[in-house]
Design a protein that fits this description.
Length: about 350
C-alpha cells in the first residue's frame, strides 16, 4: 500500500515538531513537504528548528535534512493531506487555501467554533465526521478542515464521554493545572519572560482558555440530529491555570451525574471504555484510552510518565457530596502527544479508514 503524501504547515513550532515526530515513520503517511513562514524558505529543517528545538524524539536524519518550503511557494494539489500547526490568525487564511483542494487536519483554533466544522477526537466523537459533507457544500471545497480540540479540553472530554453515555452528566466544575509546553514556544524557551515568570509559580489565568474549554466540551459531546450538530447541554465551569511543569496537563474534575453511580461503578466504566477507534486498531490509538491508576497519590505527570502517551490517566476517584450524584477525580493528559501531534495523526488515520483521505 502506497503511503499518503503529507505536507506539514507550521512545521517549525512546538506543535509542528510534534506532528513531524508522529509522521516521520508512520505506516500510512509520508512527509513529502515541510512548510512554514517565508523566513524558513530554503533552509534545512534542522537549521529552521535549531533556535527552538522541542523534539522529544529526534526525527530521522532524512527528515531533519529536508528543505523547508515557504507557504507561498506551495501548491496544495501536490499532496494528499495537510497537517496544520499554524498560529490561529495565520491558519484562518492558509488552511482555507489548502482545504479548497485537500483535507486539512489542524491543531489551530481558527475553525473550531464554525457550525459546519467538527472538532474531532476519534475515540470520543467519531460520528461528527458527518459534518464534513455540509462543510464542503457550504464552502465549495474539494477538501475540508478538521481541527482537534484545545489540549485542555482533550482530557476532560475523554473522561466525560463514557460517563455521559452511561449515567448522563448534568454539571461539571474543572480546575486545570496546565504545563508550560501548552503555551507553545514562549513556555518552552528557557529565556522567555513568560517561562521565567512561571518558574516556581502558579499563574491563575490563561487568557481565553476557560471559554474554549466550555464551548469545545459541549460541542464535542454533542449529537448529530437530522444532519446538524446539537451541542450537549452540560453546565460547565472552568478555571484554567499555568503551573511549573514541563509537559502534561493535570485537571481536578468535579461533576454531578444524571443518575447515581458508585465509585466502583464509575471506575469500571472509565477503565472499560472503548470506541470505534480502538476496534479499528488505528496505528496511533491507545488500546485502553482511559486508565484509572490505583495509587492514592496518582496520577502525576512525573511519577506516571512511563504510561502510554495517548492515554488519559485518572485517579483520586471519590464521591462528591456537593453535587447531586457527585463524583470527583483528577486526570492527567499529555498535551503534546494527544494534544497536538498524536491527536492530529489519529484523526488523519480515522479519516483515511473512512475513505476521506
Amino acid at each position: 500500500m502506497s503511503k499518503k503524501q503529507a505536507i506539514i504547515i507550521g512545521a517549525t513550532g512546538a506543535a509542528g515538531q510534534n506532528i513531524v515526530e508522529f509522521t516521520a515513520d508512520h505506516p500510512w503517511f509520508e512527509i513529502a513537504c515541510l512548510s512554514a513562514s517565508e523566513r524558513s524558505h530554503s533552509k534545512s529543517y534542522r537549521e529552521a528548528t535549531k533556535a527552538a528545538p522541542f523534539f522529544r524524539t529526534m526525527p530521522p536524519e532524512e527528515v531533519m535534512e529536508m528543505t523547508m518550503v515557504g507557504a507561498d511557494h506551495v501548491d496544495p494539489r501536490d499532496y494528499d493531506v495537510a497537517f496544520s500547526a499554524l498560529p490561529s490568525e495565520v491558519a484562518k487564511v492558509q488552511e482555507a487555501k489548502f482545504a479548497k483542494h485537500i483535507p486539512v487536519i489542524s491543531t489551530a483554533s481558527a475553525y473550531r467554533y464554525e457550525p459546519d466544522t467538527p472538532v474531532l477526537l476519534p475515540d470520543v466523537n467519531p460520528t461528527h465526521i458527518e459534518m464534513i459533507k455540509e462543510q464542503r457544500e457550504n464552502r465549495g471545497w474539494e477538501g475540508y478542515i478538521v481541527p482537534g480540540p484545545n489540549c485542555t479540553t482533550i482530557g476532560l472530554v475523554s473522561t466525560l464521554k463514557p460517563l455521559l453515555d452511561t449515567y448522563g452528566v448534568d454539571v461539571v466544575s474543572m480546575v486545570s493545572m496546565q504545563s508550560l509546553s501548552g503555551a507553545g514556544e514562549k513556555g518552552l524557551r528557557s529565556d522567555s519572560e513568560y517561562r521565567l515568570n512561571a518558574l516556581k509559580n502558579v499563574i491563575p489565568l490563561i487568557e481565553g482558555e476557560e471559554g474554549k474549554v466550555i464551548k469545545e466540551t459541549n460541542k464535542i459531546l454533542g449529537k448529530i440530529v437530522d444532519g446538524k450538530l446539537v451541542n450537549a447541554p452540560i453546565n460547565i465551569h472552568a478555571t484554567c491555570t499555568r503551573v511549573d511543569v514541563e509537559i502534561v496537563h493535570t485537571e481536578a474534575v468535579h461533576l454531578g451525574l444524571s443518575q447515581s453511580a458508585s465509585v466502583d461503578e464509575v471506575r469500571k466504566t472509565l477503565n472499560g471504555y472503548k470506541s470505534e477507534a480502538q476496534e479499528l486498531k488505528l496505528p496511533s490509538v491507545a488500546e485502553q484510552p482511559i486508565i484509572v491508576v490505583e495509587e492514592a497519590d496518582g496520577p502525576q505527570p512525573k511519577k506516571h510518565s512511563d504510561y502510554p502517551k495517548m492515554v488519559t490517566l485518572v485517579g483520586r476517584l471519590r464521591e462528591n457530596p456537593v453535587f447531586k450524584n457527585g463524583i470527583s477525580y483528577v486526570l492527567t493528559s499529555d498535551n503534546l502527544e494527544k494534544g497536538a501531534g498524536g491527536g492530529a495523526v489519529l484523526s488523519a488515520e480515522y479519516l483515511k479508514v473512512k475513505g476521506l483521505i
